[in-house]
Fold Sterile alpha motif domain-containing protein 9-like.
Amino acid sequence: MFSLSLHSTALRRGVHLGCLATILTMSHGEPQRVWLNISGSHRKGYRQALHSECFPDRENCLTMDEQSLPEGETEEMSIREGQSNQSHRFLLCGNGEKVLLSKKVEANLDALSILCVNECEGGNLNKHEIEEHFYKGGKVSWWNFYFSEEPGSTSLIKRDKYDVIRNVIIPNLCNLNVACVSFNLFHLPGCGGTTLAMHVLWSLKDTFRCAVLKEGSSDLAVVASQVVQLLTYGAVEQSAQLPVLLMLDDFEEKDSVFDLKQHIVKEMEKKNLSSQCPQVILLNCMRIESMENTDLTEDTVLIGNNLSAPEQKCFQEKLREVDEVHKQDLETFYGFMVMKKNFLPEYIQGVARNVLKSFDFEDKHAELLAVLFLLNTYCKGAYLSVSLCEEFLGIKTKPYCGSNKVEDAFGKFSTLVTQCRVKDNVDYDALKIIHPSMAESCLQELVASKKAAKAEITNLLLMENKFFTCVQGKTKLWEDVHSILVKRDMKCGGENNRFSPLVQDIIKESPGAIEIVLFNAVERFTDNAVMFQLLARYHYLVKKNFRQAEQCAWQAQELSPKNSYISDTCAQVIKHELKFELKRDLIPDTPGGLDEYLRMAHSATDAFRETQEIAKKEDKRDNTPYNSAGHLGEIQVAVMILEILQSQLNSDQYNTMKCFLNGSIKTHDFLKIHPFKHSAGYCSVVQQYSNILCNLQHNMKRQFDFFNSFFVHLTARTSSKEQIQSELARCFSFYVDVFCNISTQLNDLSSNWQFLESKNADTYSGLLNFLSNNIESNEMEEIVEKYAFIIENSTGGSNGVKERINFIYANIVLYCIKPESRSIRPFESLQKTLSEVLTHPATFKDSMELHFIAVALLWPQLSVPKFSERLGTYVSQMSRSFQKELGAVCHAKWPVVHFYLGKEKGYGSLVSQENMSKSVGSEANISSLFQNGKLWNEEAVRQQLCRVTGRVEKDALLADTSKADFNIEVKPFYKRQLSSQVGKVSFLLGFTMKGPLAFDIQLK
């Protein structure tokens, strides 16, 4: 935005027009607004002069709107390319009326690109140019839809999924009693997913207030605030509100959609907005890399690169129309033809091969083209601003609003690039490759023909200062370059996700060049800890240069000392060096060798514990889940210690060492035992590291228990959960081998406990985990019998609390798995056992699991009055225990609902999440149904779950019990539902470790 004050006594037209033209030329693009402070008597003449002398070829590109400012002397000129010159833009209200969207309000809603009900009306852009741009591969604009509705025009092709989204999914979502709902449109890059989503918005602009989330809108709290402002703008009463339909076009993780929904709900709660139907609908238009392993739910639509027969017919008919209107340019309409050819790889590769025959990387325009190929291949949605391209190519910026065809500078390659309009805080034009598949094929062609290597192109991108000095698009480009170097594909396993796809490819294609690329990356991102982290990872994973890796890791930590992921890298360097030395097996099997190994292990353990502490203190303002890498790293190092001892000691020594590690032999006795009594060197090493060795079992067990609680009681928000659990299973097998001496001959307390520990069944978290990990029913029966034996043979007292609590959990889990099992004890006996445990004060370590099961078991029956009346106290104690135990690690996660209150009596009163999932389909489907509130309308769910009655008083939900004067406060899952309810209500009840939650609250 530029502000110019032109004094009325000095309005020398030539001077001021020259200044204005120069400023606009130097702006490297198009400012959205120029504010001119001109006295009223000169306005008309100045307007005519601007049109005739500055913008002779674009008569209508300039609009001047009167502004009612205090001085009354200011006019605004909106200079917009690709937008209508609308002086008034309107939003629809729920009562059918229209409200004027003021420019000030629209400017303040800068995270949203708003689609008004009268969008494009009053404009006169060139229809032929708009269509040509789209067919060549440019992004669809609202103008394409506007022109397609003009008399005599044919509509844009409606994809098969259009009617499903518009007429089925969205109407179904509108019937839900949830403030904010969402659905997914997953699409492969370049297959028309964004066009389809915008087509839906255009068709519904008379039904909803529609908007698209702009790129770079990363602060979800700000986005939520603006969405709610758009919802309420101009609506005097809440009944006049029209729901917002918001398109999300650049989210990379589904979790981000869930996070945005939570922010919107919180914002509505702050504004005290309530409704019996959704007020915000999120259309999550998300790119995916593959159609495989994509979870399909009722609220998910998938668009791939394979047109259906009806769609192919539509494209064939459209081709005839396009041929009539654009006959001369049809051959270069690659964007249209890629889809017309049904994404045929041979067609795309053929175009790439033919167009790039004369490609010479020495040419400036060829260099820029190669950079665009690279960016559009490895970073979907990447682009370079036109200003940057002009500067790189040495093109003088043309007069403002004049011809601005930077594509012409690419010569015969110009058909591969297209301009797009970037909606940012200040809109600007940018350049990109016409289609993602074309970018990928062109890059492959350059590499295959040896005209340019990926390492060479990446180095050019990193070393050329012009790419990083241009103001327009600067932030976006920095983010894209950072992404292609750093972002890994976590869906790949093993060595395929050690680095980003680009870095992986360069290592494979030009192994000798990758180090230079990474060095240039560090030079470009000098203050970026993640780049030093990347270089450290390369040194310890690929080069095995641990000293260099250590140096880079410490440089990263100096730049970001409070980042747990950077701290983890420092620990990983030591761990990988230890792993490398173990595999190389060059350290001698001597006391000195053992000392060297244990020294590294000790350092790595300390480093991972430091990572854990940093993770607990990390800034919790964003939606990044707790980093558990420090906990896993400590377990992995402990396993390495076991491997070290096994490799360094002979058989007798190792067996003795195992007894020492599990506590069977004390330190002072260990030194006197035969295998070691004549080896002073080994004894000295053991004494030196006795602290880490003696506590090895305890520390490993502590970390395994942590992960049990972390994954069982909190929702998973990371795609690496399966990988972590697989590694935990590997490590746990080592633990069992050393520390769980299971004897089939003995049937004593110790053997039974060790059996339970070996099955990960010695904790309530481990037992609850059996609900979802498909344990065999006979194995679960054996676990129940082991607990029964332990209780029968236990000496009692406080030592019997843990086993009795676990015994209750084991019976409930067995019932959920195999309700007809004869090993299940009568429900009444469980209540009796629970009552006995509740008679005594609970220790902190037993508090959460005890009070959780007490609330779950005693809630429906209320048949044990003495303890039932304490349920409110138990809920409070459980909540406090949860905060102490999991409060530091539950950020960006939700407590898992282990059971819902069922209609049946006894065991049937607890319906597990897993059993409910089986009744409605896959886990992915139940997650989608849950988030949108549709789960509670499923007939299978309604038949199983019991509705609890209660009342709302002063923003509190009080659940009824069998005693009229006794109520229990329950937290609603969505607090907003309380603001819309008064008096008697009914709801469904779920039990979490943080306390009971109310779902689907309805007025009675």
